[in-house]
Every structure is written in C-alpha cells, then in structure tokens.
Design a protein that fits this description.
Elements: H1 16-31, H2 36-43, H3 47-54, H4 62-71
C-alpha cells in the first residue's frame, strides 16, 4: 500500500487562514497514514478538490471542507483570536 508523501508545494491562495487550515488538514491526513484519494472518497469529493483544500485554495465550498474534516475524524472549534 502506498504511503502519503510529505510534499510541500506553493499555496493555492494568499489567504493565511485558508493556508493554515489546509496545512493542518494535510498534516492530520499524513499522520494518519491516509492517501488523498482515500480521504477524498470518504468525504465525497474529488482528489483534486482535496488537493486544493490542502493547499489553502479559495473558492472551495465550506461543506466540502467540513466533509474532509469529518472524514478525518475532526470537528471545528472556534477560538478567540489572541
């Protein structure tokens, strides 16, 4: 079975919050040893959409981001900015 690569690429946007969120989702996926295709299938999205999310891409529907989080066993938590 293939293992996830820890490949860094250029962010898909210049929005720090999206870049950070995508990086965190990618880190959780890699730490769990899961491939993009596996998580994308579980979330009901394409692998290219997951790639866009992990690269901090703008224009992805929030429902798809939440589906990825759920597929990874995560739930959102809002915290006050410091």
């Amino acid at each position: 079975m293939p293992t996830p690569r820890n490949k860094q690429g250029k962010p898909a946007s210049d929005i720090p919050t999206l870049i950070e969120l995508g990086a965190e989702l990618a880190d959780v996926r890699r730490e769990a040893g899961r491939l993009q295709q596996e998580v994308a299938t579980a979330a009901g999205i394409s692998r290219s959409t997951l790639h866009t999310i992990e690269r901090g891409g703008a224009g992805v529907r929030w429902e798809k981001v939440m589906a990825v989080a759920e597929a990874l066993g995560l739930e959102p938590k809002w915290v006050e900015k410091k």
